[in-house]
Design goal:
The protein is α/β, with parallel strands linked by helices and about 250 residues long. The protein has one domain: Rossmann fold (3-Layer(aba) Sandwich), CATH 3.40.50. About 50% of the residues lie in helices and about 15% in strands. It is built from nine helices and seven strands, in the order E-H-E-H-E-H-E-H-E-H-H-E-H-H-H-E. Strands 3-2-1-4-5-6-7 form a seven-stranded parallel beta sheet, sandwiched between helices. Helix 1 packs parallel to helix 2, helix 1 packs across helix 9 and helix 3 packs parallel to helix 4. The longest helix is centred in the middle third of the chain and has 29 residues. The chain starts with 7 loop residues before the first strand and ends in an 8-residue tail after the last strand.
């Protein structure tokens, strides 16, 4: 069993899906989870479930597209809890549509939410971690950022940016005793995927060697490993959780 006893972990995007599963999983492993989301009611529900299961955590409202809010959150968390043992960037959003139909506002939102939000959260929360000389960062990208995805061109670009950012940040943070890794989910049963036509969902299932879509828990399990001491000598890596849809040579 992986234990995170005594760890304090900040997570974004905890209102539903992968973020909610991650918050619950890390809390179950013993971490004190600071779960954040732009939807206050949703993240409060996640933390209520954590408490009901006998674990520890708190809910915070955060819009990762708001740079000032991120800095204020990081300062408040550091004052209340000290440096984090781990940062987990889960918050993200997309809507499938042809690239030529993307409006400037849509493109801006995709990049702000899926890429710049992670960059800003890392910079704000890493400062006390660097001073402490320890910790880990887990960014959630997407296999779309590794191999591309029809109808998700800007999203794939933003997630590809997360992957490159993760690798570069890992090189910078190694001297500070901080590891930085990335989990890249394949098609996963979340609210975002549910918006896709059923024929596309069925096509994805047929394309996946394991013949099923991913579950949020599958991604949370990978994040749990990276957050643990068992991954202490792993940094700058991208772990695809896709049922074999994408395979490294």
């Amino acid at each position: 069993m992986i234990s995170l006893d005594g760890q304090k972990i900040f997570i974004t995007g905890c209102g539903s899906g992968i973020g909610a599963a991650t918050a619950k999983t890390l809390a179950e492993a013993g971490a004190y989870v600071i779960a954040s989301d732009i939807n206050g009611d949703a993240v409060a529900g996640t933390v209520a479930a954590i408490h009901a299961a006998g674990h520890q955590g708190e809910a915070q409202v955060l819009d990762v597209c708001d740079p000032a809010a991120i800095v204020a959150m990081a300062d408040g968390v550091a004052q209340a809890h000290g440096p984090m043992d781990a940062i987990v960037n889960v918050a993200g959003w997309d809507k499938g549509q042809p690239f030529m139909d993307n409006t400037p506002e849509f493109i801006e939102k995709i990049v702000q939410l899926n890429y710049l939000g992670q960059v800003r959260v890392c910079q704000a929360f890493l400062r006390p971690m660097v001073e402490a000389g320890r910790g880990t960062v887990i960014n959630v990208a997407s296999d779309a950022g590794r191999v591309g995805s029809l109808g998700e061109t800007v999203y794939a670009g933003a997630k590809g940016g997360v992957i490159a950012f993760t690798k570069s940040l890992a090189r910078e943070m190694a001297r500070n005793g901080i590891t930085v890794n990335c989990v890249a989910p394949g098609p996963t049963e979340t609210a975002l995927l549910a918006d896709m036509p059923e024929r596309i969902q069925e096509g994805l299932k047929r394309a996946i060697p394991m013949r099923r879509l991913g579950q949020p828990q599958d991604i949370a399990n990978a994040i749990l490993f990276f957050a643990s001491s068992r991954a202490s000598y792993i940094t700058g890596q991208v772990l695809s959780v896709s049922g074999g849809l994408t395979m490294n040579g």
